[in-house]
Design brief:
CATH topology of the largest domain: Alpha-Beta Plaits
Low-confidence stretches: none
CATH architecture of the largest domain: 2-Layer Sandwich
Helix content: 25-40%
Structural class: alpha+beta
Number of helices: 10
Largest sheet: 8 strands, antiparallel, barrel
Distance between the termini: 45 Å
CATH class of the largest domain: Alpha Beta
Strand order of the largest sheet: 2-4-3-11-8-10-9-5
Shape: globular
Radius of gyration: 20 Å
Strand content: 25-35%
Mean pLDDT: 92
């Protein structure tokens, strides 16, 4: 039970000091430290700094592909090469309506076009089907300790103009994106700043809503879950706010993306097929007049995950 509460506290803010975690859990700082080290072996994959890439001038497109004619060994080699493409931040392979999913960051349509050319060259005539989704918003629920409405991190465009940040700030963000429990002293030494100067930079990034929060990336498989990705295509007149609310308040939905035309791509973790079936059926029943189609993808393996990869301006 204490592990569950510890994970929830870290998911709310994984930079919470050991002293505060100790006080909230009612155990010693050393005990908290030991439990975290144990959880890092299988449950906690990394400590994430959530960055608002949209404010930095990036756009995000998802590409889902159905393939044919590859052996498992051939596909593995292709996916390895795919992961090396710089502005592709997520690659997964599925069992379901598509075989692979790709997330691409791009600052312009020509950059997107150039990336797609590399993808198509890699898979050649083996592509049977492909679909694009232009993402405008990502909602990341935060694990709850007590019942009630879910808090969440909302990654979306806030200002009309792109915020310009220094290359130093970009380097800081790159250093902490998968190491949110960084030490100010160690990071300051690495970057060549004083501790106070580094803290000033990070506080400014938080104030300007470039850094939106700090949370954990959990290994669902180690917790006994199967990971699914669900693509939900909705009628144009759908009130998406109600669906967003329902998804945010479902503890088995850890990530939600919204496309520019009001469709959804979201993750769902289930303990068994019955749990998944009940969820899908309840969604279809409640929104039967809104759901035009849906695709269910069982995540076989995640080959690359670079949360909001940061590049030079």
């Amino acid at each position: 039970m204490k592990d569950e509460k510890l994970l929830a506290l870290l998911d709310s803010n994984c930079r919470t000091p050991l002293k505060q975690l100790s006080s909230k859990l009612g155990i010693s700082k050393q005990a908290v430290h030991n439990r975290m080290k144990e959880l890092e072996k299988d449950t906690i994959l990394s400590y994430l700094t959530i960055t608002n890439i949209y404010e930095l001038g990036e756009s995000n497109t998802h590409l889902y592909i159905k393939l044919h004619g590859f052996t498992d060994i051939q596909l593995k080699k292709k996916l390895g090469k795919l992961c090396k493409i710089r502005n592709i931040n997520w690659v997964a392979d599925f069992v379901g309506d598509y075989d692979i999913g790709i997330s691409i960051f791009h600052k312009s349509l020509p950059e997107l076009e150039e990336t797609l050319k590399k993808v198509y060259k890699l898979f050649g005539g083996h592509i049977r089907k492909r679909d694009f989704y232009f993402m405008t918003r990502h909602l990341i629920p935060i694990a709850r300790i007590n019942p009630g409405y879910a808090n969440y991190i909302d990654v979306k465009k806030i200002r009309e103009k792109e915020i310009t940040i220094s290359e130093l700030d970009r380097f800081i963000l790159k250093c902490i994106q998968s190491d949110a429990r960084f030490s100010y002293l160690d990071l300051a030494d690495k970057i060549g700043l004083s501790r106070q100067a580094l803290k000033k930079h990070i506080k400014a990034l938080e104030k300007n809503k470039i850094i939106l929060g700090y949370k954990i990336l959990m290994n669902y498989e180690a917790q006994g879950y199967t990971w699914h990705a669900i693509i939900l295509r909705l009628a144009p007149t759908t009130d998406i706010d109600e669906i967003i609310s329902d998804l945010l308040n479902n503890r088995n939905v850890p990530f939600i993306s919204v496309t520019f035309d009001g469709n959804f791509i979201f993750d769902f973790k289930s303990k068994n097929n019955n749990q998944l079936r009940e969820f899908i059926n309840s969604l279809k029943d409640k929104y039967k007049d809104s759901i035009e189609d849906y695709f269910l993808l069982n995540v076989n393996k995640m080959h690359k995950l670079k949360i909001y990869g940061l590049r030079k301006s």
